[in-house]
Design goal:
- This protein is an alpha+beta fold and about 100 residues long.
- It is built from 3 helices and 3 strands, in the order αββαβα.
- The longest helix has 15 residues.
- The termini are close together.
Length: about 100
């Protein structure tokens, strides 16, 4: 999903439900869980944080085949809240 599409969808939900609707991350389609979102990080944020990192052997490098690895925004999973619902994938927009 591209950033513009995500913003458009979130704006539509905001217009319908207001600002107080909670945002969660649904993971694992075959055994779904609802998770909080602890934050957002970009690939640029990660690359900048890696500069000068002394623990270079402890991290996973991105695939060289990822043609847009420098233009990615990550929704970072927080804690697991509860079990999810498989139907989320059926009704998800732009999935």
């Amino acid at each position: 999903m591209k950033l513009g599409t995500l913003i458009e969808i979130l704006n539509e939900y905001q217009e319908t439900h207001g600002d107080n609707i909670e945002v969660r991350l649904m993971t694992q389609q075959n055994w779904p869980f609802e998770n909080s979102i602890c934050g957002i990080a970009s690939s640029q944020d990660i690359a900048e944080a890696r500069d000068g990192d002394e623990n270079e052997d402890d991290r996973t490098e991105p695939d060289d085949d990822d043609e847009q690895k420098d233009a990615v925004i990550y929704l970072v999973e927080g804690r697991q809240i509860c079990y999810g619902d498989k139907t989320a994938w059926d009704v998800a927009r732009d999935c």
